[in-house]
Amino acid sequence: MFLSWFLLLLLFCIPVAIVALFHLRLQRKYFWAAGKMAVNMFVAWLLLSFLVQQDSVVLNLICLLIVVAFASFTIVHQVRWKVKYHFIPVFVATLCASILVTIVAVFAVSLKGNLLNARYLLPILAFCVVGVLESNSKALDTYYMGLYHHHALYNYLLGNGVSHQRAVYFFMKRAITRSLLPSIRHMSYIAVSTTSMVLWAMLLAGASVYDAIFLQLIAIATMVAAAPLALIFSLLWARRYAFDAYGHLLSKEKFSKGEEG
């Protein structure tokens, strides 16, 4: 065991030696990143060990709510929306999308369908949240910035009798495209990139090739499915903060903190 940890540290020291050899000014950044990684992994080890050992339905549900709440707050913050208006819609949207995708994925992994088992719930929830975080902040920004930059087109469509749903259809298409693009890129080079971490890690852990490939596909599928679902739910439930009762676009300052002084 000690030899394994020594060899692991040796691998991490290789970049340090290269940085020193070429006199690169990256030592501080590298050690800071390595320190953050070590702390995060240690905390994750403690929490996951506790959750898996306890395997409590209540604890697993609390973990689900905390992870989704953190992801929702991060998305709202990145889009620069006002948290008091948009946190709840994004939280509910992310929670519903994660639950729907997790149910399907858990049944695919375990035919017994033990949905609240920590061994199944936590990893699949993590895949869902990663997919949503990676895609939806940029996708939501694309949707609303598109509306504000091309509001004349939106108003023209409304003025000519087009329904609100039809008027925003083009902007939703752009946002969904932005949401799906990262996952599509990952799918295209799944076996030769860091996206395939699950595949290689399971092979190292002694799993069969079939099981490793299947669970890698489950990971990608959950990320691909969760992101657009959460985006669509978010846009539907956050509508009241961007449009009035007649479908007219509200001023940007009413729901965004980007213009606050």
Please outline what is shown here.
The chain has 261 residues and is mainly alpha-helical.
Write the SSE topology.
Blueprint: H1 2-21, H2 27-54, H3 57-79, H4 83-109, H5 118-149, H6 151-159, H7 164-167, H8 169-188, H9 197-204, H10 209-237
Helix pairs in contact: 3-4, 3-5, 4-5, 4-10, 5-8, 5-10, 8-10, 9-10
Tell me what you see in this structure.
The termini are far apart. With 261 residues, this protein is mostly helical. It has helices at residues 2-21, 27-54, 57-79, 83-109, 118-149, 151-159, 164-167, 169-188, 197-204, 209-237. The mean pLDDT is 83. Helix 5 (118-149) packs across helix 8 (169-188) and helix 5 packs across helix 10 (209-237). The protein has 10 helices and no strands.
3D shape = globular
Order of helices and strands: HHHHHHHHHH
- Quickly give the structural class: mainly alpha
Topology, number of strands: 0
Number of helices: 10
What level of helicity do the residues show? over 70%
Amino- and carboxy-terminal Cα gap: 56 Å
Task: Note the main sheet.
Answer: none
Oligomer: single chain
Strand content: under 5%
Tell me the radius of gyration: 22 Å
Which stretches are low in confidence, meaning pLDDT under 50 for 5 or more residues running?
none
**Arithmetic mean of pLDDT:** 83
Q: What descriptive keywords fit this protein?
A:
single chain, 261 residues, mainly alpha, 10 helices, 0% strand
